[in-house]
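Record type: monomer structure entry
Structure origin: computed from sequence
Chain ID: A
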Amino acid sequence: MIWVLNLDAEDELALGGKMHTPTKAIEQRVRALLPALAPLIGDSRVHWPPLPHAGEGRGEGRIHCWSPTRFALKTITDAGLTPPRAPSMETLVRVNSRRFCAELGQTLPGATYGSALPSSGTWLLKRPFGYAGKGCRKINATQLTDADRAFIAASTELQIEPLVQIVADFAIHGWVREDGTFQLGAPTQQIVDEFGAWQSTRITDALDANELSALNREAIRTAYALHAAGYFGPFNLDAFRWSDADGTHFQPRSEINARFSMGWATGMGDLAHELLR
């Protein structure tokens, strides 16, 4: 099996689909993350970077991309290999934008999508594309700094969410086929750092019945919406439990990632091997 691990795919999508070449820093990040990616890539012989020269990958099985962007597909063809079937770049841009998630309906009270900022309160601003905590900024609306204003000025639109106290992060992973059928994995708990960057994933039974129902409902809605938009392939839905003075609450759809993710193979379990082979 051959993998193109373009973990910075959102940087390319943020350009509207214009091809983006990963930086040396991303190349180093990919290499550093290879041990953590073992549940996904297994004993695959070749990864990006680099891919084999023409002919070297023959007989290695299927080729997979973290996200089948123009860069990823060109990397495959430049190696003399046949790229996998993939959604259009326009579809990838649409379904990975936070606007797509927002259009399914906000699931965190007080959240909005657009450019009109609240006049008071503390908020988390998210640009349309981001990963590993990038593209987000916490602000106090009544005490904006110059850096806050620069971030806002450079953003054409934003997911605007009240800044809440997150207690635990969760996710559910899935696969949408071209015919619209789909499969979901088991709920997982995610460990992230203070910036929201992934650290580890494990199967969890920590969700109560209402939380589990809400997570599954949103995952099913997301799978249908992805198919309707022309997407097929892996996806995941991020969620979290949060608390305030009134108690504990559940946010069942905080992010949609229409691509592979660090916890995808863990969440999909035995289904992952079936879908990837």
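Annotation 1: The chain has three domains: 2-86, 112-162, 164-276.
Annotation 2: The longest strand covers residues 165-176.
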